[in-house]
Specification:
Strand content: under 5%
Distance between the termini: 69 Å
Number of strands: 0
Radius of gyration: 45 Å
Largest sheet: none
Helix content: 55-70%
Structural class: mainly alpha
Order of helices and strands: HHHHH
């Protein structure tokens, strides 16, 4: 079992070494092209989402060419109606996003106003506390009579014990 596993690892190492040599000799141009196509597909799909998130709807519309398709006279009525539909859907989406942002900003403004009211109330309470003057307390020393307590002394006798019989070490 160990012998087969060792041969497998050796084959994987030789294969990796060979692929590394091919890659460094620029023999893997096909891999670069494939990776480039894959990355361009990802960019094509993620750039519009980033543009919407950044609030750049005008750039997005120019990028997707919906404005150009709407302005051009299309020979096919279906294509022009599709372009108009896409443009209106995009505008609706942008409008909804802006409305949501406005609601969020309104809610933040309300919370900030409530926090300002709370701080104003706190300041008012602190000002009232500063105005309140406390009269210094006058402590009059009082004379207390002395009390004497007599505690009788008691003698306790303990019988002697021989502890050396138990062992030689200290207790």
């Amino acid at each position: 079992m160990k012998n087969i596993q060792a041969w497998g690892w050796l084959a994987a190492g030789v294969l990796a070494l060979g692929l590394n040599g091919v890659y460094h000799d620029c023999g893997a141009a096909w891999a670069h092209r494939t990776v480039g196509r894959f990355i361009s597909r990802i960019e094509e799909r993620s750039v519009p989402v980033l543009a919407l998130a950044a609030g750049r709807a005008d750039w997005l519309m120019a990028k997707t060419e919906t404005v150009a398709a709407r302005d051009e006279f299309a020979s096919c009525r279906v294509a022009s109606s599709l372009a108009r539909l896409k443009a209106s859907l995009l505008q609706n989406k942008v409008a909804r996003t802006q409305a949501n942002m406005a609601r969020f900003e309104e809610m933040s403004a309300r919370e900030e106003a409530a926090l300002a009211r709370l701080e104003a109330g706190r300041g008012r309470i602190e000002a009232q506390a500063a105005r309140v003057r406390f009269a210094p307390a006058a402590f009059i020393p009082a004379v207390c009579p002395r009390v004497r307590v007599n505690i009788p002394r008691v003698k306790i006798s303990v019988p002697e014990m021989n502890l050396e019989a138990l062992g030689t070490g200290p207790i």
